[in-house]
Amino acid sequence: MILTFFDQFSSPYLLGIPLVLLSTLLPALLLPMPSNRWITNRLTTLQLWAINKITKQLMVPLNKPGHKWAIILTSLMMLLLMINLLGLLPYTFTPTTQLSMNMALAFPLWLATLLTGLRNQPTASLGHLLPEGTPTPLIPALIVIETISLLIRPLALGVRLTANLTAGHLLIQLISTATVALLPIMPAVSALTATVLLLLTILEVAVAMIQAYVFVLLLSLYLQENI
């Protein structure tokens, strides 16, 4: 069977059963479960330290009422971080390269922030559609433009995460294929290509962490506008 570069993004199946749900939930099982012991092992201590740092960083742009979302935002950050990093391993499937999954995460959370603002402060939330001091002839056009920019936010969240991870995976596969193909013909060029592949892999690890952080940070900024 001839495989293409895009076959790595197809959903895996086993006996006709899609394994997307399993590949999504499996990273959460790798985290050590917290215990009630006073003295824990180093892995649990590292996990608690990382979650504490992530939570503090995500709560920086939010005021006091927004801290109610700490569990949701931190859990989403850890989920995306684990999925993105584990997806860089060989022979693994990355669910966050699927636009459908990213939109399923982005749209409900964006809608929740919007409904929170409309419930708590409807005047201020609707006031974002019209900047202060706008000339009267430009009011209808600006309302339409701001409404479109508001509705396109969840699409931008999902497409940004999908595009960055998909591009990184394709680059890694292209360069790794070139490295193997050039090895018997031009070993020196193949070694140079392997060095580029190593640097690109390090870059993709950083991109996987940054994109998870950007996704959750933008959601927290949308939340701050509505509370």
From TrEMBL:
Pfam families: ATP-synt_A (PF00119). It is found in: Mitochondrion inner membrane. It is a multi-pass membrane protein. It catalyses: H(+)(in) = H(+)(out). The chain crosses the membrane at residues 12-33, 69-89, 101-118, 138-158, 170-190, 196-223. Its main location: mitochondrion. One of its GO terms (cellular component) is proton-transporting ATP synthase complex. GO terms for molecular function: proton-transporting ATP synthase activity, rotational mechanism. It comes from the Eukaryota. Keywords: ATP synthesis, CF(0), Hydrogen ion transport, Ion transport, Membrane, Mitochondrion, Mitochondrion inner membrane, Transmembrane, Transmembrane helix, Transport. PANTHER family: ATP SYNTHASE SUBUNIT A (PTHR11410:SF0). Component of the ATP synthase complex composed at least of ATP5F1A/subunit alpha, ATP5F1B/subunit beta, ATP5MC1/subunit c (homooctomer), MT-ATP6/subunit a, MT-ATP8/subunit 8, ATP5ME/subunit e, ATP5MF/subunit f, ATP5MG/subunit g, ATP5MK/subunit k, ATP5MJ/subunit j, ATP5F1C/subunit gamma, ATP5F1D/subunit delta, ATP5F1E/subunit epsilon, ATP5PF/subunit F6, ATP5PB/subunit b, ATP5PD/subunit d, ATP5PO/subunit OSCP. Belongs to the ATPase A chain family. NCBIfam families: ATP_synt_6_or_A. This is ATP synthase subunit a. It comes from Ara macao cyanopterus. The gene is ATP6.
